[in-house]
Amino acid sequence: MNKVLKFEKIFNKTRNSKLIHEGIVYIEDSSGNFSWIKGHGGKDVDSPLLMASITKLFTTACILILQERGKLSLNNEISEFFNKNTLSKLHFYKSNEYSFDLCISDLLFQVSGLPDKFEEKKNSTKKKVINEDFSFSFDELLNWTKQLKPHFAPQTKGKAYYSDINFDILGEIIENVNGTTLAEAYQQLIFAPLQLEHTYLPQSEGDFVPNIYYKDKVLKRPKFINSCRASGGAVSTAREMMIFIKAFFGGKLFNKAIFNTLACYNKLQITMWPISYGGGYMRIALGGFMTPFVEKGELLGHSGSTGSFAFYYPQKDLFFVGDVNQFSNPALPIRLTMQLAMGAK
Question: CA-to-CA distance for 238 and 322, rounded, in angstroms?
């Protein structure tokens, strides 16, 4: 069976799930000589899609571009960009205060140990957003985080914990260093150079925000998405996601030699299995339990909790982008991309 037929079979099986009401998959190689697109439920390559945590790749790109321009360093302590009161008690672990020791790299690599208000079981933001739309400020997010317990001291060997607050702080640093809003920084450093005309960070309730499915329920959550900003607030299309992910890994935005230092991976918390995290992006090793001793390669990129995905499969020179728009199961886009990658043999 050739790979196109395999992709068809895999996507058809996924879309037949009761959870999948709409979706789009777009696969292409770096040259564009191979290209495969499949939509479901009225979605096509130009349909607006909520990026959710794929937005973190935009934030990562801005940090790397600003570093390349000499505006900041990954070794900068975050206390250089905030006043003392803002950071005080943010990271207090086993009677030690680490708030002022945190570096940009700790946030980028998810090794800060900071807790995640979005996913922590007690009073999680995720539970709340299923039931209502609400907005929050960066200061409110900091205060919520200060009420939670960190998971480990920063840079504890072999430890990583996925937390949105890491990237929310990076977003504030980008604004500080670039002297613009985050939306303007994205536009200036990424969207304009790549000529992305339908990718944006919503700024107000007047900006279009795609609806989200939670099981069979349609959620309209513009206030929440407007608040997510650097960790998960962007909107794009499959066509423009493809342009971006190729540029991100292809050296069009920053010197790709930086990946030599970013490709240091740590496994995330067990609920995020099989994902490891590098310097601002996810890594998923292919193979799994069925073939534990056979290295099939890796997927590099990001997925989003609402079903979006954007990954590069370097061993086969393929890029996978798309969305299955389902908030109830964040593993769906990961599983689909892994299956598609394995189907590319």
Answer: 6
